[in-house]
Design goal:
Layout lengths: L1 E4 L10 E4 L9 E10 L2 H8 L15 E9 L11 E4 L10 E5 L3 E3 L6 H4 L2 H14 L7 E4 L5 H12 L3 E6 L2 H9 L4 E4 L6 H7 L5 E6 L3 H8 L2 E9 L12 H7 L2 E4 L2 H7 L1 H17 L6 E5 L4 H9 L6 E4 L4
Parallel strand pairs: 8-9, 8-11, 9-10, 11-12, 12-13, 14-15
Antiparallel strand pairs: 1-2, 3-4, 3-6, 3-15, 4-5, 5-7
Helix pairs in contact: 3-4, 3-10, 9-10
The structure holds NADP nicotinamide-adenine-dinucleotide phosphate.
Length: 326
């Protein structure tokens, strides 16, 4: 099979496409043909050797996929060849024609979920749904989403809107904000403005938002913490800006705020059943009002460096996919 391989940590351009033996399933694993794989910000970090998990070299990146099971290892009862699944193997490997994954890290991809949505459902939609559940979001509350034109951001806008929240999208360009509105945002703010506070005060009658879902960290975190209403919740999802924020504890006390860490990857590793329950909740929202995939580009294995470069340069609106047989 063909696979994109990292032989040394570095820039996206260091990835090469190679012929490799197709994986055979070990006990407890399945092997699937990859129909589409989502490109995540974490792939960029992993290729650079800057992710929490540093895989031994060489490795095939790619954290999530939608595909068809081709074989199942000893002890796997749940999956059979021909099953359509979506999955997030802990070791990555999805930027290839075939991928091996623990049977616990693949989930049913119902017919109602198009392949291009299923290829981003576990990480982007799963994380968004898990995060908003952690915030105990109630219908009628207001949620501010940063990076709202990115992969997790678009998913978070769609999930929050289906949970009955009023959604304010923050992003750095008019195109990203337009996409967020198309996916359910009720209002928008520019994340490049000097300060967010006057715009959020205007949009909330001076009250502030109930929940912030932050994928970027840095200045946005600092600003949006001050945009929370009393009793508000800050969801710490990611640090795409590259700057880790620090929490001023005295301010939390003053306004009864909560800062909530969201680590969906850790849940996948430790409690796959909780991931499946989260995906079922996201699928229940999809059944009532279907999500649509916001596809920013479809790439061959050879074109992955270009996709990763666009992500690093903040050019992506929506989600990029790798189609190994394109
Ligand atoms: N905690 C979890 O379980 C979990 C799960 C999945 C992802 N994540 C994290 O969530 C974040 C978003 O992931 P994603 O896959 O949705 O990424 P993405 O599609 O690239 O979106 C990230 C967004 O961050 C914004 N951004 C701000 N500064 C940036 C910079 N210097 N470089 C690149 N982007 C910048 C961009 O929006 P603007 O240009 O509009 O600012 C961009 O749209 C990442 O930090 C990722 O690691 C966490």
């Amino acid at each position: 099979m063909r696979a994109a391989v990292v032989r040394a940590f570095g820039a996206p351009e260091s990835l090469t496409v190679e012929e490799q033996p197709a994986p055979a399933p070990r006990p407890g694993e399945v092997v699937a043909e990859v129909l589409a794989a989502g490109v995540n910000y974490a792939d960029l970090l992993m290729v650079a050797g800057r992710y929490q998990v540093k895989p031994p070299l060489p490795f095939v990146p790619g954290l999530e996929f939608c595909g068809i099971v081709t074989s199942a290892g000893a002890g796997v009862e749940r999956w059979r060849p021909g099953d359509r699944v979506m999955g997030a193997p802990l070791a990555g490997g999805c930027f290839a024609e075939r991928v091996a994954a623990s049977a616990q890290h693949v989930f049913p991809a119902p017919e109602s979920l198009p392949t291009e949505l299923a290829a981003q459902f576990v990480v982007a939609y799963g994380t968004a749904c898990f995060a908003l559940k952690r915030a105990r979001l109630s219908p009628g509350e207001t949620v501010l989403v940063s990076g709202a034109g990115g992969g997790v951001g678009v998913a978070a806008v769609g999930v929050a809107s289906r949970m009955g929240a009023r959604v304010i999208a923050a992003a750095s360009s008019a195109d990203k904000l337009r996409v967020a509105v198309a996916h359910g945002a009720d209002a928008t703010v520019s994340s490049t403005a000097e300060t967010l506070r006057p715009a959020i005060a205007d949009l909330t009658g001076g009250r502030g938002v109930d929940v912030v879902l932050d994928t970027t960290g840095g200045r946005f975190f600092d600003e949006s913490l001050h945009c929370l209403a009393r009793g508000g919740r800050m969801l710490v999802v990611g640090f795409a800006s590259g700057t880790l924020p620090r929490v001023p504890a005295e301010y939390l006390l003053l306004k009864n705020l909560s800062v909530i860490g969201v680590g969906f990857g850790g849940v996948l590793a430790a409690e796959p059943a909780a991931v499946e329950a989260t995906l079922e909740e996201a699928l229940a929202l999809h059944a009532v009002r279907p999500f649509t995939a916001e596809i920013a580009g479809r790439f061959t294995l050879e074109e992955i460096p270009r996709a990763l470069r666009r992500l690093a340069d903040r050019e992506v609106v929506g989600k990029q996919l790798v189609l190994p047989r394109l």
